[in-house]
UniProtKB/TrEMBL annotation:
Gene Ontology molecular function, alphabetical: calcium ion binding
Membrane disposition: Single-pass membrane protein
Species for this entry: Nostoc punctiforme NIES-2108
UniProt entry tagged with the keyword Metal-binding: no
Protein name: Cadherin domain-containing protein
Subcellular location: Membrane
Domain Cadherin: 5-102
Transmembrane helix recorded as keyword: yes
Amino acid sequence: MSANTVSDEAAANTVIGTFSSIDPDQNDNFTYSLVSGIDDTDNNAFTIDGNTLKINNSPDFQTKPTYKIRVRTTDNGSLNFEKELTINVNDEIPSRLTNPNDDIFNITGQDDKATLEIQLTGHNSPVVNELGLFTVDDLQGTINGIAPGAEGYAQAAILRSEVILSAIANTPNGFDTNNLTRLLQLDSGQNFRFLLVQDGTLDAVRNDPNSIGKLLFSNVSTQKITDLDDNSFSLGWKDASGKSSTDFNDLVVKINQTDQALPLGTNLQGQFQGELIDLRDVQQSVQAEFNVYREASYNNYVGFYQVTDQNGGIDTNGDGNADVLTGQAGYTQAAVRGKIAGIDLSVSNQGSATYNGVFQPGAIFAPFIIVNATPDALLDDNSSNDPAVYFPFLGANSDHTDHISLLASNTFGFEDLSGGGDKDFNDLIIKVNLTTAMAGLA
């Protein structure tokens, strides 16, 4: 018997396995049948079709975890042999997203991980809001024994938070907000809540504890949860801008469990300063298509450079170790000098453009923005006119301010003004589509 297990989610007439027989006469053919005898208890639950065993009805682990059958194999000469077989039913945990208590959600998957899909479906706020997710220990939302609303809860939540996406208020021409989606991988069985960063980003709050007041936690006055009856929910938020006084439409997302794989390059996205492309697990060159949009008066330039790890160190001598760290003298020059050739991104105001480039496998790549200039202005012999350059790493920025926001998977919004300016993160928007060539295909 090739297999002796079946999922408790299997449909009627599902094939359990195939029979095979060993006989000294290698040219013999065999027929198989269910027969009476010892351990024939559940013969009626199965059908033999040729050499395959099928279950007649969908099994249920809770009511019957095992079946007993007796099978006879007969060769061309009418010689036969009988054997008792046990068919085991696997207790499959269904993949699902539930809302068991207030604003607490729980997600389960078939394996030890489960994937959550979040899609932006609406935004009606004059400011840029960033949606975050944080894990909690129980259905009361506690974190290490700290209850929601108690002293220290916000700080504990930040340490467990992951960025989902930012919803910008003023979109450039051509940038479609209807297809902004993020996939997050969580432990199966994990409980979690959501929070909103009003007019800011989680990176900025983590970097400046005094800005913790920008956090908006979900409750009946800030978030409306709608069960969509298809293993998904709609979350509508009301921020403090005052534009949405009665409706919860300042930021609206749809969330659901999914079996989709995480998009290529997104492993670090959502973590602190995680606006990166992570190709460490890739073994082939990666083709990149860049869609570029702009809503800014400055003629900005975006490029990418390789970093040694998620902290942003740069290897300048090729030994694989970080020689220049974020915040050290020469970091900006090392990053721009090491930019990936052929990836030079810019576009006219309210225009859109598409570029193509190649990332090498096995590395992490970070974006940078040069304000109203190109790399030549930074790498010439005149340092007195060097333009401002900003990175995902706040310690590498001269103003220690967040200038790059995650708008969706592999989609980055840039702010070009010192100190964060208007914090609109739409001065340039870069959407990256990554693909690898399949081995063995021409």
